[in-house]
Design goal:
By secondary structure, this protein is an alpha+beta fold. The chain folds into 5 domains: 140 residues, no CATH class; 108 residues, no CATH class; 187 residues, no CATH class; 230 residues, no CATH class; 86 residues, no CATH class. It is 41% helix and 17% strand. Strands 3, 25, 26, 27, 28 and 29 form a 6-stranded mixed β-sheet that branches. Strands 17, 18, 19, 22, 23 and 24 form a 6-stranded mixed β-sheet that branches. It is globular. The relative contact order is 0.09.
Length: 961
Amino acid sequence: MLGLLVIGFFVFAGLYADVLWYDQLGFLGVLTTEWIARVVLFVIGFLAMALPIWGSIQIAYRTRPVYAKLNSQLDRYQEVFEPLRRLAMYGIPTILGIFAGVAVSTRWELTLTWLNRTPFGETDPQFGFDIGFFVFELPFYRSVVGFASAVVLLAAILVVATNYLYGAIRVSGREVVISKSARVQIAVTAGIYLLLQAVSIWFDQYATVTEQGDLITGAAYTGVNAVIPGRGILAAVAAGVAILFFVTAVIGRWRLPLVGTALLIVSSLIIGSLYPWVVQRFQVDPSELALEEPYIQRNIDLTRDAYGVADIEEIPYEAKTDAEPGALRADAETTASIRLMDPAIISPAFRQLQQFRQYYQFPGDLDVDRYEIDGASQDTIVAIRDVRLDGLGDANTWYNSHLVYTHGYGLVAAAGNQRSADGQPVFLQSGIPSSGVLGDFEPRVYFGETSPDYSIVGAPEGDSPIELDYPAGEDGADQTKTTFDGDAGPKLDNVFTKLVYALKFQSEQIFLSDQVSTSSQILYDRDPIERVKKVAPYLTTDSDTYPSVVDGRIVWIVDGYTLTDQYPYSEKVSMSEAIADSELPTPTLAFDEVNYIRNSVKATVDAYDGSVTLYAWDEEDPILKTWQKIFPSTLKSMTEMSGDLMSHVRYPADLFKVQRAVLGQYHVDQAGAFYSREDAWTTPKDPTAAESSALLQPPYYLTMQMPGQEAPSYSLYSTFIPQASGEESRNVLRGYLAVDSDAGSADGERAEGYGKLRMLALPEDDNVPGPGQVQNTFDSDPTVGRELNILQQGQSTVTNGNLLTLPVGGGLLYVQPVYVQSSGGTAYPLLQKVLVQFGDQIAFQDTLDQALDVLFGGDSGAAAGDQEVEPGTEPTTPEEGGTEGGEGTEGATDTELQQLLNRASQAMDDKRAALAEGDWTAYGEADAELAEIISELIVLAGEDGASTETPATEAPAPEAE
């Protein structure tokens, strides 16, 4: 009993902690609704299983033959079983009922959505039912029938076993003798089971519109003309056989139901398997396109509707391949916003330049956001400076890790299109205390992606603060401390609550520490995505959350999806495979195979107090409407979103990845072309990943102007190449997909263009290079190779950044930043070069401005980076145009020559200065620098370095005193 009490208290402590957590957050109704649903369903499942089982056993026992003549073996069985009979008769139903109750309670979501179902307002093309029937009703009905069938089947087994044990069924040689009572009970049970199977088969015909076939998802010609009618016939046959069993219960003849059962089995083989095979093999296969065309068209239309791509705008795009001077003049704003900072690479730079202390950290992959600065939209790379307990080393005591180091500090933002003179990020918001162009905001981060498991914060008024806010003074000798003053977690204001959390986290210090007072709060479950999942269990969240400064607070923005795999005729997609790429290689999802998706909710999590706010982003989504009925008052309307928040929400990446996976096939909207697969596309592999990697190139957020747009907007894009028909696909561009991700900045009003999908379709006879070809060109170009060899001197590492593709200048411009990192332990990547390609011409320069000018014959017509650009100005006519191929251009040579001459001039000045001061160490360094420059000039001039000796530049002997 003591052991049971201890176990029970541990269970109670966990449940009570959940109540406190949800209550503090304001979502207690979500927890209680789920618990009530689970308890009610457990009781229903328990009774629905236990009562029929118990009743069947009782009937079989009470109607047993009193004077049955048993053989010796059954006598022994009865002797052993009789002392346990009462326990078995009640224990077996109870155990089966518990298992059934647990199983049924897990279906609480299915049950609640059935009870609160919302019509879609659209019908399926085969049966004419509302789509909500397939999403909400049919899965519930099939689940109920399946459960009932399991109950009846178990009851039948136990009835037969009980009757056999007590002599109601006797086997004598080849003869089976069944008493009247046993006959009635077995026949009725069998009849009920077959009736349930008839209902199940009848429902199965509706399920054909969501089943995956060889050609499409949904019922094709064979399904409509053979499978669906066949299942209707089999359902009728099963019902007829069930009636025969009921007749047997009355008249006592088993021949008819046994013959009927054999007929049902034969019919299922002929009607259910053989006939559909014959129709497919001899009728459909010889004329497949003609017969399947209307069903393929159903699949195309409903798939595009289910994934939200039906209204995509397809734009024929004759991409230019000639880099003409001034070509970027009309795209000056896009060019000025080209992002050079790669969020997947520059995290070490953030750590080295902005981490400051070992107990802070930045994530490995940073996020992309945008802010309005000086009236213009600026793409930024952002990250939270979060606390890192592992960095405390020996100081990582319970007191420090849970009471002192409780929060991170500050959001760091760098311009996406700028860099410092030495290649570092240009920070727009940085430092401790935080300062920059983002204005005043609460910098403390108590809720982040890497926050500690739990922290205890708060103290009585007047107590000295103990929470480290940030280091101050020289070398951090002084520390600024703070006391949390918000409402962010359950209060530890009594002995019982302290005991509950001491048990939950298995830490006696929570109960014993003098620093844990009645004013203390305990913060846990602090990851933003996990918090949203707990308060909205019906949502599948995006794999990435990102921080933004909104209305004076740091908030995490989380995108939530409503999904189903029961949308009729819609192609099913593995979501984990669709969203996997080089930035997210191994996603794990609870709900994987989907054929309908909506970004129905935008959620925010306050980084200071952890408050969660859910906004209904797609208020027309029937699945979201259903959940709003289940959990009323948990979602706010989109109209309550502030303009500042609207300016930071974006089109979610996971939704875009799923849509691009679908559009690889379903950009074709005509059945004939779709059937031939002649224009199937796929997403290219990431060209910057390892050669053996099969990971896809991720989509990228950029501010750009697509054809059909009047001005640049914050967008998300991806590219397509032909789908592989052999071992390897041709890496030429066939499509360019972009979506407008800018929701505007008006209070509660979404921008008109938000979510607009545009597809640039390139002609099949136009071999515009894809990302793989472009990367290969960059890697194999001899001029680029020589430059990279120079950059790699001294064991430095050269890393290619993300390869961006922009539809500018009437063609497609590729831009790739190149980072150099020394081999030192505290080194970080510096942006040193930029590679660009347009058509078959490339340039490799120190800055994007220089590279674009070189690429476009001396003047691109636009400026990159932070320069002000006014579209429409006349460019200066270049004297020399670009040259084709991978050998660079004359403009490139002139630029490199001038740079080397400038460096040589500086080196000679350094030599003269060192000589005048008698500093021979500095003189030698300047002399070595000059010798290296001379070698580079010789290589640039095209001379044979092997046969040309570098002039000696030894220092002169010092004059005698």
